[in-house]
Amino acid sequence: MSEPLIQYQNVSICQQGLEILEGVNFELNKGEFVYLIGKVGSGKTSFLKTIYGELEIHSGEAEVMGHNLRTIKQKHIPDLRRRLGIVFQDFQLLTDRTVHANLEFVLRATGWKNKVDIHMRIEEVLEQVGMNGKGYKMPNELSGGEQQRIVIARAILNKPELILADEPTGNLDVETGRRIVELLREICAQGSAILMITHNLNMLTEYPGKVFKFENHHIEEIKE
Question: Smallest Cα–Cα separation from 34: which of 203, 179, 217, 153?
Fold first, then answer.
């Protein structure tokens, strides 16, 4: 059995001196699809932020893909983030450049140098998310669903073992949201673990996975 990608033991998470979550025990293994649910302000996004080093762990033991989050040095956080894919609800695409240029920016920032390799990888991920032929477009020329597909393409550029999706369907209509979840499920089937925040509880029955609920400063797995 391989090591878990994420392992939290009795973790406490604070923000601005206030305890957001306490006694967090959580494990995520390769290829798992896991939902995080709970009311607004229950700590879901804060939890994700600790995984990619945006927010410090207050106490307890926390490891993400071999990095100890209690002792990780600032200079090693970029290395951790290179091994993750992050899908934001509000896209966060660079609006002043084309889809292709958005993706090229990420590849160059993560050490890719060869122009041919860069072009080929961008074409691969655009095809994977059903957006081939759209590389020349500007983000504002795309629908919300198309922009989210580009965000997912960006997240999988470096073939990450883990993708964090913070309400990826939050700004989309139901049918478009469904297609985005189906795309994430396909990526999961190819080997990436997915950790997804959602308020759409219908997704849980339509596309089953492990479910963790955030409530009263705690996280608890919801069993069938």
Answer: 203
pLDDT in tens, 17-42: 899 999 999 999 999 999 999 999 89
* 211 DSSP β-pair partners: 35, 222
Written as six digits, the tokens of 222 are: 């919801």
Question: 11 is written with which tokens?
Answer: 């973790």
Q: Record the pTM.
A: 0.91
Instruction: Report percent pLDDT > 70 for the chain.
Output: 99
Where are any strands of DSSP class E within 122-209? 162-166, 193-197
For residue 153, which of 91, 191, 103 has the smallest C-alpha distance? 103
DSSP state for residue 137 in the 8-state scheme: S
Cβ–Cβ < 8 Å for 14, 175:
no
Task: Say which residues have a Cβ less than 8 Å from residue 164's Cβ, sequence separation at least 6.
Answer: 48, 51, 52, 84, 85, 86, 87, 195
Greatest alpha-carbon pair distance for the chain in Å reads 51
pLDDT tens digits for 52-63? Answer: 999 999 999 999
